[in-house]
Automatic annotation (TrEMBL), chain A:
Organism of this sequence: Cyprinus carpio carpio
Superkingdom, taxonomy of origin: Eukaryota
Protein name: COMM domain-containing protein
Domain called COMM: residue spans: 123-190
A Pfam family of this chain: COMM_HN
Automatic annotation (TrEMBL), chain B:
Species, as recorded: Cyprinus carpio carpio
Stored PANTHER family: COMM DOMAIN-CONTAINING PROTEIN 4, COMM DOMAIN-CONTAINING PROTEIN 4-8 FAMILY MEMBER
Domain COMM: 131-200
Annotated InterPro entries: COMM, COMMD4, COMMD4/6/7/8
Pfam families: COMM_domain, COMM_HN
Protein name: COMM domain containing 4
Amino acid sequence: MLLVLSEEHKEHLGFLSEVDPAVVGEFGRIAVEFLKKGSNPKIYEGAARKLNVSSESVQHGVEGLMYLLTESSKLMISEVDFQDSVLVLGFSEELNQLLLQLYLENRKEIRQILGKLAPSLPHYHNLEWRLDVQLASRALRHQVKPTVTLKLHLEDGAKRSARVLQTDPATLQHLIHELERALAELKSSHCRRILRNIK
Amino acid sequence: MDRFRFCGDLDCPDWVLAEMSTLARMSSVKMKLLCVQVIKDLLDEGIDYDKVSKLTSDAKFESGDIKASIAVLSFILSSAAKHDVDSDSLSSELQQLGLPKEHTTGLCKSYEDKHSALQEKLREISLRLGRLEAVNWRVDYTLSSSELKQVNEPTVQLKLQAQDPETDSTQTTVVTITADKFRVLLTELKQAQTMMNALQ
């Protein structure tokens, strides 16, 4: 599928054809760094001074590249489609090749970064447990009541939280049984067929 | 694979088996000293990473090897302590896994020396909910109130500082108790105490 670039986007990227291909290569490297670690506006100023242009043009150029890379990586467009999408910008063949290389080399890592941006539920971090026997309470003496206390540690991005749960051995057995059933479901032929088709 | 006592009567994890050869690359003397460092780490006494790199430099360990050897020694020592394995059984099981005799002897000697301390530490970090951290009390005598001119009643104020089970932060609770209620509380708690003493 082809990428459709907005007029504004084309304008921002248009700046790239006015500079040396080596500079575009450098902008590409900066764009990838920014995608990995966040942007640093000071870089724009430095580059603008060296090239004798406004820092806004540099910013647009770099951000245009960042957007081009993220959209292409997100949609996982083929080499051919990428080249066709970029054709509309009217760049030199050398520049088109440069952009294609930039896309292909960084596509996998950019997709990994994009993968982490999806909303997620808190997930398992650690499970502590304890087995106790209740022998007496204020209301009733001479008991023998086993209980299992669980502390489930969860992680959600940077946030850690914990839930405390308590159960008796019979319910624990049932819980284990249900979880084993869920695991076994992965091995069923129905599930296997679907997984094969996705891969 | 056989069942191993130090693994809780389960199979030995593959990664543990794989790292036996890593450990064997060190001299048995250096490995024993590494055990000492790992035990210090398990007891929260602080591991000296400079010493660790000196100990592993002869065997030309890369950082991955260093991490792996610390991880496998941590596992063996804490798991053996967890399942209360005696030093001789541990020795025979480690040799079954391919750890050379001199290395095994060194490890088991360190284990035996620190066996009780390790178990004490593991007991300490076992799951506890809402640990009581401090109790403070004060006895007041109420003379008068807006409801009744002559109250003349003693009360006790208890300030309990406990750990919140889910957030592990300290929570403070203050309760005020009349003399009668307090008498009941005290009696009940003394009964619980008698029961606890009987169990120890």
